[in-house]
Description:
Elements: H1 3-6, E1 9-18, E2 24-33, E3 38-41, E4 45-48, E5 53-54, E6 57-60, E7 67-72, E8 86-87, E9 93-101, E10 107-117, E11 125-126, E12 149-153, E13 159-163, E14 174-175, E15 178-179, E16 183-190, E17 198-204
Parallel strand pairs: 4-10, 11-17
Antiparallel strand pairs: 1-2, 3-6, 5-8, 7-9, 9-10, 12-13, 12-16, 14-15, 16-17
Amino acid sequence: MMPREAGFGPSPITYTYTNEFGCDTKTSRIAFVDLTPKVRLGNDITIFKGDTVTIKSTVTGSYKNDLVVSWSPTTGLNNSSIGRPVASPSITTLYILSAKSLFSNCINQDTIIIIVKTKIQIPTGFTPNEDNINENWVLEGIEDYPNAEVKIFNRWGGEMFSTKNYQNNPFNGKKDNSTLPMGTYYYVIKTGDDVPTLTGFITLVRGGQ
């Protein structure tokens, strides 16, 4: 009987030997059919550089459930021998999760890519006072997102600024060349690279006000 026909688990096997005089000799043993481990990782994950994420996995299989898991590479993982480690790679990394049955040495694996993006540095305010110091709202790292859309709104939801070319058209505290009043504004940054939309508030400060 083939292992597939027997199914997983223990199965008795009887060996029969017949000699030249027609006498039979029998002996039996137990054969175990193990399950191949199943390893499932989700979709690839995108994070900002410096952030962390827990890699979720599902590992099942093996007749006695004596599975050992290991990750490769180990760089950027807080623990390479658990199913759900915390990952913080500094660059985009392809990770391989392997599961091995200690009972039969059967191995299976799956892969996932942690995509690391540049973290945009977002100042909480700036001072466009025409003194040539801190005149623009500088977003460090925005140059790595050429398709990013940046919008600025006032407290009533009115759009004060919008661009898809921020590196060459930064927010300077003006709308249609008219100076905007000092105050708090709301920003929305959509990078268009499978990274969550960034939102928050900035304060526009003008000297002498």
